[in-house]
Structures are given as C-alpha cells and as structure tokens.
Design the sequence.
C-alpha cells in the first residue's frame, strides 16, 4: 500500500520518496521485514539514536543515562534504537496479522471477550477487545482503547461510541466504585474480575496455551506484548512473576478471559 500511494511525474534529478520515522519496539513488526531484513536498491534504512542528536542538552542526555541504569531493556530500544528485545517474554506465541473480525466471529464456538484495566494520570485506562476460539486454541485481538487521564464518563462514552456498550466486560476488581459508576453510565454488562491466590500466573498460564493473533491497528497491545517480561531476582535469574510494566492491556486480556481459564486446574478463589 505504501508503494501504491506514490504517484505522479517528477522531473529529474528529483525522485519520489516517503520518509518513515519510528521507534523499533517490536522485532516482529512488518516494518523490519519490509525495510530492514532484505536489501533493496530503492530503500535507505538508517538507525539513529540520541547520541546522534547534537541539539540535546545535558538534562536530555541524563534522561537516557538514567534509563540505561534503571531500565536497561527499555534503553536498548528507546536509547540505542535496537529492535525490541524478546528474551524473557511472557507471551511468545503471537503474531501481527490482518483478519476480518466478522468472519472470525462467525466460526462455530468463537466467543467475544472484553476486559478493562483502570488507570488515570501515570497509567492508561486499557480496554481489550478480543475473540477466543477454544477449540483451535486461538485468541484474536481486534480493537483497543488506551488513554491516560480518562474519567469514568469518558471511558463509558468511548466504549459505547465504539459499539461495545452492550457487551459483557470484566473490569479490575480493585476499582468497585468505578465499576458501579460505569454500570450507571450505561455499561450494563460490566462486572468485576475475580482476584485470588496466584490469579495472575493462573491466567497467564492459560493464555500461554493459545496462539494470539493481533490486528495491526492494535498498536498499544503490540507494544505491550512485545515488552511484557518475566521479572528477575537479585541474581538476575527469571522468577515466576511478570514485571509490573507494559501490563495494562495484558491485565485487561486476563480479565476478559478469566471465565475460560477457571476450572479444575485453575482456582481464582
């Protein structure tokens, strides 16, 4: 589609071009495959980072130096411009792929699943929209809401505007007042999630058995799942607990799918 959008006549020595700039969050992104993995005489792909920017002052540089010390994984991408690091990802069996949500939803046994994780100033409110195919062990992620500083009225209005106001929505149980308010604002299918011992790990383990197919428009979901990592102990060894970062849509997905993950193997009580 990018190539097809370039049209018209240009006199020499000028030439047709499109300039794309981005942070390389996800090494599985189609941009890497299209512009970096294969050589093409018509493509100039160049990686730069903050050290190339002569206009940064000392305070700007300190931000990245602090990131290097406190969050080295993020520094590799935002600081050095490297493609997203995948070692230690919580979810590895996923792909970014276009699909027709209406076609998938017509498959026998496929159910919709919606989850909401509350945020406000520092953390975004995250709304997950997915389809689950239990028989084929597939989860399709087709839409999202991901915004900071959203009041409950704005959350309700956005969900209703997108056409999901009548759906069953499972929301973070730590915000019972917000859930009650959203119900009064028209989200009659909303209910709180179930919290319990090992509920995070139980939900994660259930989802790990599925392949996750993500529509390209769900850019925030792709960013999170590309960076949702297992935490490490003081000896730098992985532990059975996800890092509390890049987890807003990941939590919303768990809430949405909790009714499927409950059973003899998993207890949320």
Sequence:
């Amino acid at each position: 589609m990018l190539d097809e959008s370039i049209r018209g006549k240009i006199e020499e020595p000028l030439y047709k071009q499109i300039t794309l700039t981005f942070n390389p969050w996800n090494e599985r992104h189609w941009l890497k495959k299209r512009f970096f993995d294969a050589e093409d005489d018509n493509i100039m792909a160049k990686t730069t980072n903050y050290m190339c920017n002569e206009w940064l002052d000392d305070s700007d540089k300190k931000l990245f130096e602090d990131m290097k010390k406190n969050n080295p994984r993020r520094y590799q991408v935002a600081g050095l411009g490297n493609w997203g690091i995948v070692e230690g990802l919580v979810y590895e069996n996923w792909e970014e792929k276009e699909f027709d949500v209406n076609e998938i939803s017509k498959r026998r046994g496929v159910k919709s699943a919606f989850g909401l994780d509350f945020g406000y100033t520092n953390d975004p409110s995250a709304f997950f929209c997915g389809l689950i195919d239990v028989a084929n062990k597939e989860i399709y992620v087709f839409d999202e809401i991901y915004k900071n500083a959203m009041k409950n009225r704005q959350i309700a209005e956005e969900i209703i505007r997108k056409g999901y106001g009548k759906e069953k929505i499972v929301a973070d149980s730590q915000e019972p007042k917000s859930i009650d308010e959203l119900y009064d604002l028209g989200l009659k299918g909303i209910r709180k999630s179930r919290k319990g011992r090992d509920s995070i790990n139980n939900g994660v383990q259930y989802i790990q058995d599925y392949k996750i197919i993500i529509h390209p428009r769900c850019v925030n979901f792709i960013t999170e799942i590309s960076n949702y990592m297992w935490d490490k102990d003081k000896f730098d060894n992985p532990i059975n607990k996800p890092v509390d970062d890049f987890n807003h849509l990941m939590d919303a997905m768990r809430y949405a799918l909790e009714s499927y993950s409950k059973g003899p193997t998993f207890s949320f009580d």
Summary: The CA atoms of residues 59 and 136 lie 52 Å apart. Strands lie at 94-96, 111-117, 125-133, 138-147, 169-171, 190-192, 211-214, 230-232, 238-242.
